[in-house]
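Reading group handout, session on sequence-to-structure problems. Before we discuss, look at one worked example. The prompt was deliberately terse, the way you'd type it at a terminal:

> structure histidine kinase

The input record follows.
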Amino acid sequence: MKLALLASIAAGISVGLLAWRERPKPGSVPLVLLMAAQSWWSAALIFQVQAASLEAKLFFIDISWVGVTLLPVAWLLFVLEYGGYNEYTTRRHVAGIMLVPAITIFLVLTNDYHQLVYRGLEIIERNGATMVSRTPAVWFWVIAAYTYLLGLLGLIPMLDLVTSQVRSFRNQSVALLLGLFAPLVTNLLFLFGYLPTAGIDPTPVAFTVSGTACLFALTRFELFGSSPTPIRHARRALYKQMQEGAIVLDTHDTVVDMNDEAASVLQTTREEALGRNLNDVSPDLLSIGGSAGNHVFNPPKNTRSYDVSESQLTDIHDRTIGRIITLHDISDLFRMQQRLEVLHRVFRHNIRTNIQVILGHAGHLATHNSQQKADILKQNAIEIEETGEKVRNIIDVFEEGRKDRENLRLHAILRECVDATARSYPDVTVEYDPGPEDIVVDSLFDIVCSNVIENAAQHNSSSEPWVRVGVEPGEETVTVQVADNGPGIESHELALVEEGTETPLKHGSGFGLALTAWGADIAGGSVAFESDSSGTCVTLEMPVAGRR
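And the output record:
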């Protein structure tokens, strides 16, 4: 027995030293404590057998409990860290796990006063050696049950790794389980009286097997060189950080989990939603998720649109245990689709109209040398050219929307736009109130402001046309108002701004409004129109990017 105990101590020290070198890798420190507990228990048993007096034997029995109680705690902490369950290894959890072992150590040291651990002892003489056998009391069985509980809890993650697709994880877990079962079986046989050891617990002898198994896992299977620790953390991180919203429901539609993105979409928090029925959190989403196929979800008080898809959750017996609802933001896709439809329809309408006019007058001009018809052809050609320029500007806006743009001083943007408009339309009086000169905005507003100011002058048919540009600064946004005394914008022309799209029977005739609305939206701003027969006021609200 002594040689076996010395071998277990040697194996434990070797594994402990190798594990200590692997710090701070997950599981390294608990494995050191595990080997220290094994070695402590083995050493205490050697001294107990070799002790000459009864008092010495009882002393070494008592101090062996330090290793006995620390062993299952270290095992569980090692498995939790090794398997990636670090959320259960915080100081609060460790303190809770150590509560019963701490009570046990205290009761062992004070057993003479209450006899909760042992009720008595028996002196046994065998082969010239004196052995001490103590009768277990109620707390002995409490700590025994607690020890096996911790051992079984640590067994669960290890069994999961036995079936891992990663071969190294399978080999590591099998070696560790072998190291667990050897002392576990030995201790069970001792407790139920199947080992004639004269009252001495031979469990430390089996530590030779467990120490060797751990040593093999460290050296042969690279226990800390190839670790499954990141798996759970990676899955959780991906779930939390995924751009799509994800909601996990049980079979009764109770929200059992959701990521932050889903909570943001539903305008709630995880703490408020968890444990509640989805019907109480978002009845509209529940009705969409429960129907067949994929559908679009438009949350209340939210301008975004989401594609809703659902997948069933099943267990290993193919039983449905819940479902996952995912929310994919398709707002930008919808906007782009609407914008392309508008571009397609308006472009076809304008070009077709101009070409029909040109063809109609070209034949007449060929036989009648009419200056009036020539002027009409020239005007339609100019309109085609202007349409092409507007389309190019819109394409530029889309391209800029995909880039990292610089910021420009708003004062410089407006000053250039006003000067250019005044040169192009000298008959229009352009007034400009510059406001603060240090406000910086997205450079995309250069195209937007230029389009608004130019349109205000170009389409102003008043006898005394004027355009006024004003700036109203705020803390986080700045407002630019462009007012004119032109004929106003017809109601059907505002369909794009009011409804976000057009229909085949209702659409605008130009790209000016589209360029303004889309450009402001892509740059993070907004636009509003007030128009009647006495004029139009366009209000652009822009985020302030800084001051310089």
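Points for discussion. First: The longest strand covers residues 320-329. Second: Residues 501-509 have pLDDT under 50 and may be disordered.
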